[in-house]
Structure prediction request, 220 residues.
Amino acid sequence: MGVRRVFYWSCQRGNDIQFFERAKAAVLKFDSSVSSEADVEVQPWKEICYLQYELQKTEINQLTATANSLTGKLYRVHFSDLPSECFFLVGNDLIQAETQVLSILRKLKNLQTKVETSVEGSRFNLGDVIVRLGVFRRRNNTTPTLVMDIEYRPCLLAVGGQQKIEIILDTILSHLPTFGKPTELRLDLTEQDYGLSHEFGPRHSALQYIKLFETITSKN
Prediction:
C-alpha cells in the first residue's frame, strides 16, 4: 500500500452516472500508453461505512437518585480489498480488527445503526498509481457525491507523496475542464491523537473515509 488521498465533488441529482463516466475517461487518459479501458486492470471497488452507532449508558447517582445518560458514536468501515478486516473509531481510538468481532457487536442491543453509507465504483491499476473512482451513496440521500481516491504506491510515508499526488490530480483534471477543483478532506495523517504511525497503512485510509462520510452526511 502506498500513500492515499481522497477528493470529492458534489453532483446534481441524476447526473452522478454522467459525472462518473466523464471522470473515468479522464482517469484512463492519465497514462498515455493506454488506448482503451481494455489496456487497464479494472476491478470493482466498494467501501462501506456505518456511521453513528449510538452507545448509550445510564449512570445512576446513588446519593441523588438521578440518572445521567452518556452517549457516544462508534464508526465502522469495511474495505473491499481487505474483506477479513474492519476498522472502528470510538472517540480517538482507531482500531483494526478481524470481522469475527461483528458477531459480538450484533449481540449488543444498545447499538443501533443510524446511518449506512457506501462508495461504489471501479479501481484502476495504472502502474505506480491506483485511482479509485466511485459514487457516494446514502439511503434517502438526494445529493450524490463523486469520490476519487488516488494512491501513489512507491511512497510509504504518510507525509510523503503529497506533491506527486497533486501532479497526478492536476493531470486528470486537465481532461475535465468543466469539473473544477474537487474538495479534499484535509487531515494530519500523522496525528498522534489516533495513534497513527508515520508509515501509511489501512488505518490511515479508514480515518480518511470516516471523516469524509461524516463531512458529507452532515451536509445532507
Notes: The mean pLDDT is 80. The first helix runs from residue 16 to 29.
